[in-house]
Structures are given as C-alpha cells and as structure tokens.
Specification:
single chain, about 425 residues, mainly beta, Methylamine Dehydrogenase, Chain H, 4-stranded antiparallel β-sheet, 32 strands, about 10% helix, globular, disordered C terminus, selenium binding, signal
Length: about 425
C-alpha cells in the first residue's frame, strides 16, 4: 500500500523499540499511538447508546473521573450528546491521542471528538455523514490508529447489507485515502467469506489479523427473532485473515468457526502470537507460527459450557501475556484464563459481574478492571441493569469499587470505553 508503507515502516521500527518499554495504557490499543498513559488513568470516556425515554434519548460520549485522588472519583463529569440514535458502538484514538473517533452501526456516521484540549470536557469537532457513499461499506466498527491516519474496519456493505465488507483508511482530518475488500476467494485451501469485525497489528512481524462477525441485516434484528431463524444464523463469519500489513494484502485465511471477535496480540517481549474468542462457538483460538514458520490458527479450549452459548464478547489480555479476562454476555460472567501456556489456556477464576456484561478494560498494571454492559441495540437483554463498574483485582478476587447506574443517571446504555489523562505529566511521548 503505497500511501502507508513509508510512514508505517518508520513507526514500525519506533513501535518495536518501545514494545518492551515501561508503559501503562490499555493492552488492546494500536502500537502506533504516539502517547501512552503512565500510571493511573484520570478519566474513562464511554460511548453510550441513546435509549428512548432515558434522558434525552440520544447517543452520547460520557466522561467519568476515575482517579482515586480526585474529589469526583467515580462520578460522571461530562455528557456530550450527538443527536439521534444510531447503535453507538466502538471508539478509537488517533495516533497523537488528541482525538477520539466514534462510530454508529445503524447510520454509519463517525463522530470525532477533541479529547486532547481538555479531556474532562470533550468537544465534538466533526461528524462524517458520507462514510457509506464514499467507502461502500456499512457499520464502522474498529478504529485503529496508524501514523497520521485511521484504519477503520466495517461490518457490512451497502449492496446487500450482508457480512461481506472491508476496511478503509482515512487521514486524521477524516478524508478517505483508500479502501480494501476482505477476501472472498480461496487462499490455499480455505475459502474467504469476506466478513469483518476486529483488526490488530503486530509491527515487528508486519502482520495484521482481521476477524469476522455478521452483517447489518443480522445485527439490526432483535436477538430472539434472529436465533429462531436458521437461515440468518448461517450468516456469521467463520474465518480470520492474516495480512501483509505494509502491502495491505491478505496472505492466509484461517478457518475459525463460530464468529471470531476481538483479537489480542501478546504484549510480552519475545511473544509472537495472538488470541481470539468465537462468540457462537465459545472457544479460544490461538494464532501462532508453527515450527516451520507457517502461521496457524487452532482451537485451544472452551469458554464456559459452549452448549449453553455463554456468548463471549470482549476480552483483555494482561500486559505480560500470561492472563486473559473474558466477558460472557448471556450469563453476565467475567472469567480469567491463565495463558502461561497459550497452547492450553486454563480458567482460574470467574465472577458474575452483572445480569449481562460486554466490554472489559484493564489497567496496564492489572489492578483495575472496568466493565460495561451494552452489546448491540437490538441484542441487549430485556432488563435495566446497564452500568459502568470499577473492580480492583488483588490476584485472588475482584472487589467492586463503585458502580454508575446509567439508567438512573438518565444516560442510556454504556458500550465501548477508553482511558484518558488530564495532564502532560501523565503521558509518555514516543516522539
């Protein structure tokens, strides 16, 4: 990919240089992000679904003070509505960490917030209305920082609203630079399905992995109706793709049945593997080169009882690559797996943290775990238990520190979250 290669090559070296350095941000963030929080995070920015009859009913970015030294610890300090409801979903920082991009799955709008000028009071600075018209893709899902650019992974397409989709690269001003279809043909002996969900990059190996979910028609259908439709249940992704990142070309397709979702590369120095979970299969899958150097993906163990479809959703890998927190939506559990041997993960802990739970974010030191509840507008379970919770992990037990009831606060349903810092002294620059 000519527009990315030179810049990405330079920052690939830079990211690799700092891979073993002391840092304290979320382990799922792009390695190309120029700033990494050191120590205690000050804020959590929560992208929140508007719900009719709850407050103003609008999607919004909610900011919470999470510094224990603050008199506002555990309190909502800002709420910025963007107007309307569009299935607010995921967010991601630009490489300079000054702006937060947030997407909606229903109308495919992308909102850009200034979170650098005053992180306690984000400002909406741009709304991208023409994403579908220019890219041909629907449902912006993953926002992944590149040098001066944003790589966006989508869930669907405007042609048939199905799962075949792709990725688009924008500059940090929001201008479309290029786009890439996910493979639908065969590579080797595996047939591509074209579906998309998450993406994650290992700069040292020039390797990008993408995963797969389902298209607009399915994710905008009420969950009970969807489950009873055999034809619709066949329209979920069953593959992951390994890309040559600098060339933006698919190299291998892996068969990973059951809708593989979040991708987490181990951050530990010397590790060369990634892990994902299949939502419908309730399995952990390891992606790693074999003895001959050929990348392979294989099922390395169950999450709960797959027969009960606990529906694993978000997960967070520990900074040392030896632990993995996994939230399962249907039973409201947060599970910890020992990844000391990633070939054979072992569940070592579980706790019911809500009637249903979705996103999980942990601090770099592994002592703090934040959990939110909302999955998708039409898939959320029929109850009012929507919250942001902070837990402390002492190595043996999760202890709840506080809970913000988003319905009681008239905010809506909390989905994705990102850490924020209030001062330059809390930030380590890679530049």
């Amino acid at each position: 990919m000519k527009t990315l290669s030179a810049a990405c090559l330079a920052l690939t070296v830079l990211a690799a240089t700092f891979a073993g350095a002391s840092r304290a941000d979320e382990t799922c963030n792009s390695p190309y992000m120029a700033n990494l929080i050191k120590g205690q995070e000050d804020y959590i920015h929560v992208w929140t679904l508007g719900i009719k009859g709850i407050g103003d009913g609008s999607d919004k970015l909610v900011t919470v003070d999470v510094n224990p030294a603050s008199p506002r610890f555990g309190k909502v300090i800002a709420s910025l509505s963007v107007g309307g409801r569009g299935d607010a979903h995921h967010v991601g920082f630009t490489d300079d960490r000054k702006y937060l991009w947030a997407g909606r799955l229903q109308d495919s709008k992308i909102f850009v917030f200034d979170v650098g000028t005053d992180p306690a009071k984000p400002r909406l600075v741009k709304t991208m209305h023409d994403v579908v018209q220019k890219s041909g893709f629907v449902g912006p899902h993953t926002f992944y920082a590149l040098p001066g650019r944003m790589l966006v992974g989508f869930l669907s397409n405007k042609r048939d609203m199905g799962g075949a989709t792709g990725m688009a690269v924008y500059n940090n001003k929001g201008d479309l630079i290029s786009k890439y279809d996910n493979p639908t043909g065969k590579i080797g002996d595996v047939q591509g399905d074209g579906y998309g969900y998450d993406l994650a990059i290992n700069p040292g190996r020039n390797a990008m992995l993408t995963s797969s979910f389902t298209g607009y028609t399915n994710y905008r259908t009420e969950l009970p109706k969807l489950i009873k439709d055999p034809a619709a249940m066949q329209k979920f992704g069953n593959t992951m793709v390994l890309w040559d990142f600098k060339a933006m070309k698919p190299q291998q397709i892996f068969s990973t049945p059951g809708a593989p979702l979040e991708i987490r590369w181990s951050q530990a120095e010397g590790d060369n593997w990634a892990i994902t979970a299949t939502a419908l299969g309730s399995k952990l899958w390891l992606v790693k080169p074999d003895a001959a150097g050929r990348w392979q993906a294989r099922d390395v163990g169950p999450i709960g009882d797959p027969a009960q479809t606990p529906l694993p959703v978000d997960m967070s890998i520990t900074a040392d690559g030896k632990g993995l927190w996994v939230n399962t939506f249907m039973d409201g559990k947060t599970r910890l797996f020992d990844l000391s041997n990633p070939e054979a993960p072992r569940q070592v802990y579980e706790k019911v943290t809500g009637k249903h739970v979705n996103m999980v974010s942990q601090s770099w030191d592994g002592k703090r775990l934040y959990i939110t509840t909302s999955l998708l507008e039409h898939w959320d379970l029929d109850n009012d238990d929507h919250f942001l919770k902070l837990y402390h992990w002492d190595g043996r037990e999760l202890q709840q520190q506080w809970k913000i009831d988003f319905y009681k606060e008239k905010l809506g349903r909390p989905h994705h979250m990102k850490f924020g810092a209030k001062a330059a002294t809390n930030v380590a620059s890679l530049r």
